[in-house]
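ESCALATION

Customer reports they have been waiting on this structure for their group meeting. Please prioritize. Original submission:
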Amino acid sequence: METTFPRLLLAHAAQRPEAPAMREKEYGIWQARTWADLASLVEQVACGLHQLGLQRGEHMVVVGANRPRLYATMLAAQSLGAVPIPLYQDAAGPECVFPINNAEVRFAFAEDQEQVDKLLEIREQCPQLAHIVYDEPRGLRNYNEPGLLSLDTLIESGKAFAAAHPALFSAEVNKAQPGDVAAMFFTSGTTGNPKGVVHTHRSLLDRAKAGADFDHLTSHEEVLAYMPPAWVGQNIFSYGQWLACGYVVNCPESAATVMIDLKEIGPTYYFAPPRVFEALLTSVMIRMEDAGALKRRMFHYFLDLAKRVGPSLMDGLPVSTGDKFMYALGALCVYGPLRNNLGMSRVRIAYTAGEAIGPDLFTFYRSIGVNIKQLYGSTETAVFVCQQPDNQAKSDTVGVPCHGVEIKVAANGEVLVRSPGLFKEYYKNPAATAEVLMRDGWYHTSDAGFFDAQGHLKIIDRVKDVGRIAGGANDGAMFAPKYVENKLKFFPHIKEVVAYGDGRDKVCVMVNIDFDAVGNWAERRNLPYAGYTDLAQKPEVYQLIKDCMEKVNADLSVDALLAGSQVSRFLVLHKELDADDGELTRTNKVRRGFIAEKYGVLVDALYGGKTEQFIETQVKFEDGRTGSVSATLKLSDAKTFAPVKVAA
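Update from on-call: job pushed to the front of the queue and completed.
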């Protein structure tokens, strides 16, 4: 039966009032909040917002980390027919101006002093922003700004109002229809201003339920909510599916304690982008390199065994009795303790999405008994378009279409989707809406892909980014920058890559090293360094990265379509790419065009055959100050390989 988010909340509160709905870690102790407690809190916040004048159909910005009271505020806004808009808590103030003005926002929820300061800083540019409600009072005692109100004060007034008007809350909840707008998410804006993606209760809950049914999720799942609520992936897992299934969402104490909290909670349902899985594995490998010789030998022996037989065991394929016995021994000595150390002892389903995941990384987790799978979707599709069945998880595909989804591939290779989870529109942007959402219901994803022989979808790159090499030995060859970038990022020593080649005679890339992984590698070789910039330009580091380049080139040489995308030249950047400097989106996607313009002198040097190039770059520090970083960068060639013809 179709429903809305607030109605689901009230249904859980009525059916199992004392069951835990959320947990939050405060001062090192997990505090549980029941469904009945949460429903009562939502009613009080809703009544408080009603008194302040929040109207049906109006937008309310929500800025902060995952917190029960943040989720309650979103539910309270939806209960009144208003539309919550989560924004990234690490976004700078100027980044919030466009969404707030575009959506004509009068009301904002801010988690703490940092978020309040950000909103007050831009208030002159957003004159309609009349009310800012804050949760954490620390540091705000002497603030005397008009419209600034603590959530505790709002709750107290709402509590009194609810007592005097007991029927108002349920009456407002019952006014909502499944087709009403439930939330709006602003895209990351890799080019131009971000777009407001409008979703209804129906579209979000339909996909939440489809994903839950696919993996047989129940109210007994445990989830750790640690990614930004503004990212639709986190929102669907810890908000949409939370209310659809009624499981428990756990909120970590802070970003710094996520790994500890992960181990304490032991989630059964886990979601993370590939870079999180990469970081977890890198930390394990760094610690193992520092372990004793016997422990290292045992670890690598059982890991090799796991890679050989683990995926087959997980997929239910036959394995010899001897291998089963040795794998069981490995589970006792290595895999079990390793999963526990990663916080994945109880994980039944782990999903990764957003970017491609490396085959070695994917195989590693599945080989030690973690049921990691890939899914495909976007903000516009409410995430769930394709999922991988438990026994058909592959590193190079994103699975089969979910229930209710139709997919076709256009003549130019673009993936088109028709689904009940499609967004309603881009807010105040009918031209952009008409460009991607056809009248017959097909959505243009802008992704290039194809179906393999087993009916699994394989994504190559963004359609607009798939180009051609012009000139040289590979004239006319296909160039897929993201495919090349992802293959290089599969190496633990490489954190970020930006590839260029469309319309040029060869492919050149700029690289960010993983400072922790390469730093540990350097220390074990007694290689001194003074910081990131110094380490990045060490000849030994260049040789390390060059080896990675040439391994990828060897792999590409046997790919008939992409053999021409081999990397000819590269450099290691003197600073890490940063969203605060405009080089990445808030979801950590490379803004390739912006970087090409900002580092044009480096791109020209790579294609001009130079061996070194001086660069000075302005950077923004966490406290808002600006400074500059300069260095003379080395530019290096990489060996390329003649295309290999694979026998049919």
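Sent to customer with the following note: The chain is about 40% helix and 20% strand.
Escalation resolved.
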